[in-house]
Amino acid sequence: MNQERILTIILGPHVSEKSSIISEENNQVTFRVAGDATKPEIKQAIESLFNVEVKDVQVLNVKGKRKRTARGKMRTRPSWKKAYIRLEQGHEIDFAELG
Question: Is this model's pTM higher than 0.70 or not?
Fold first, then answer.
């Protein structure tokens, strides 16, 4: 896979209360990924970008929520894809160190 594709697969970390609990308990991190990304592509992108070993990848399609606008009309937020990455024992990704 070329370097340009690797950089377009991972859109950014997904930080929430659930992802924080998962990272502490199960050595997992959560990322927002491209909608057309596959599990092998995600695994290769994480391993090359962060120099860690990935044990498992779980992918979830998040459906966009319906919200009411200020004028009373209904609007749907865009759907997106989330990936839970389980890292091998002894590996971790520290986002504070990267920035």
Answer: yes
